[in-house]
Each structure stands twice: as C-alpha cells, then as structure tokens.
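hey so u asked for the seq, here:
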Amino acid sequence: MKKLIVYLLLASSVIACKDVVNEVPDTPFSTTPYTFSFNKTVLPPVRIPKDNPLTQEGVQLGRMLFYDPILSADSTQSCASCHNQTDAFTDNGRQFSTGIRGITGTRNAMSIVNMMWHLDGFFWDGRSDALKHLALIPIEDPTEMDETIGNVVAKLNRSPMYQEAFKKAFGTGAIGDEIIGKALEQFMLTMVSGNSKFDRVVMLKTEEFTVQERTGQTIFNQEATPINEELDPKNPKNFGGDCFHCHGNSLFMSRNYMSNGLPNVTDLGRGATNGNPRDNYKFKTPTLRNIEKTAPYMHDGRFNTLEEVVQHYLSDMTNATANLGDEPNMHALRDSVYLSEEHKAALVAFLKTLTDDDFLTNEAYSNPF
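ran it, structure tokens below
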C-alpha cells in the first residue's frame, strides 16, 4: 500500500517514552503478571509505566473501581456511567455528559481505548500527564462525580472487600489516592482494540475489503488534489481525503494537538492549558478505531453522523484556519477537494471497518459485579 511506510513510521514513533517500558516488567509481592493477548503484528509493543507493572490482581481491582459508583459523592455514578463499553467507552451517544448534580459538561466524552499508546497528555486539552492522574480528576470535578479523594479513601477503607482487594494487588490494606489511581490505570491500560476488519484485511490478510471499502481506503490515504486539475470523476485515486495526515498509523491517532477547522470555536483547547496562543483551538487527535460507535463527534459533539464529519472536512476552511499559519495539518484542511456522493459513502464504509466487535463485547472489560 502506498501509505504503509507512513503507518509504520508513525506507529514506531509513538512507542518511545522514558517513563515506560516496552515489555511487561516484573511484578511485586505475590501477584500474577497480566499478559496481553493482542496480535503484535497489528499494534505496537506494549507501553507499561515503570512505576505500575500490570498484574491480574491490580487489573481486577481497577475494573471493580471503574464500575463502582462508590467513587461519586452520592454513589449514583461510576466511571462506566459515562464510558459505556458498547459505545467504545463513550457516553451513550450523548453530546455532553451530565454529573451527579445535573450539571452538563462542555466537551464530549472521549473513548477509552488503546490508552497505553497515548503520549503528551490525556483529555482533549492534554491537561493530565499520566493515566493514573487522569483517573482521579473526574472524581473531584464538581460537574462530574463531585466527591473528594479523601472521602473516597475513607469509604474504600471501610470496605472489607476493597481492603482485601488492595492488599492482594498492592501488598497493603492502607488505601490511598496513589494506588487508587494506579489500579484504575492498570485496568484502562488493558482496554486494547486491534481486531477490526481493517486489521484482518490489511495487517493479517485473512479477509478482503469490499470494492466500496477499498475505494474508501484509497481516498483515506490519498493526498488532496488541487481542484483546478483535470480529474477522472470515476477514479478514487484522483480524489484525496487527506485523512492519513492526522490518523495515518495503525492506531489511527496522533500524538499532536491540531485544529480541525471548526467555526465559532470558543473553547481554546490546548492553548488554555499550556498558555501558548499558538495552541489555541487545538485539541488532541483522537483515534478513529471504533469511530462508528462513538458518535457524536468532535470535542464539542457537534456532528451526529460520520457523513456530517466527512462533509465538514470537504468544506472551505481557509478563514477558519487563517490564524494557524503552516501547522502540519493545514494542507489537509485547506486543499481537500470535492468528493462525489459515491466517494463519500465509500470513505464512511472504510471508517466502519475500524469497528472491533470483540472489544465492544469483551467480558474482561465488562461490569464485574
């Protein structure tokens, strides 16, 4: 494939980080190491935090905490309340999540998937530098669980079930915020999606695309062609969607924060977090894996369908991106050309090959209670 080199280069670029190891490290205490079962041909090597080796006991504890509403102030919401497995761990088709006080947030809940390969921060604006820290933020957010970590610690310490589980996982019954975050981190790191039709066709070569899906793949991986050139309207190789610029690797995501050309944006995104005006209106580039199941789309959930997203990227974004200079994705945003209805449908059909039904139904990620 023409863009295979792009895939391999970008996939390899996301695995280097000084605070992780590319193998499962030795586990402490009398715990049992957790073993990943995903196909190494499909996804990059594992990336495990050096200070938090994955164990079966730790992962199971994190799974319990993820699904337990005890983390919220009134014990009505859990992490899973806004991250539903059948929706690729997004919020049940909602534009914004609503917390225990009935307060609605301002950003769409991101999918929890392939988290070990996220770099340069979590959340849409990258404000959290580690998954174990991200896990604790919704607990104390007044628009979400509206609890204090101190209260959560007290509640868990009163539970014989959790005292035993923490002792098995971390060798201590003295529960604290650090190991709560580590347990949740361990569970979320196991949420790996790598068995979609795309993987079976492109990476494993055990299936074949339909003609429509193959056309969509070509459009996805093709450079945009200037609209004033003579083009064969029946040849998809003449029409590029430039999708690969931001999603061109086996993870279908980028470590970069980018503008997607949305008009009337009031949320400064990354720029509000790091104070750099060049990063205003930029957001973390999410994965396209399981994109069929994660509507609505964009950080503000403004688009309800993949067809609307595709049409957005075919629109004229010159004015919307004028303040971004020569950022890496500006070519893709400004130069994409007309796609016929047939080609739009083909592109959407290709995106749907990224759905991983095993991930959406894997019992290991489900409610343990």
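The radius of gyration is 21 Å. The CA atoms of residues 218 and 237 lie 6 Å apart.
lmk if thats what u needed
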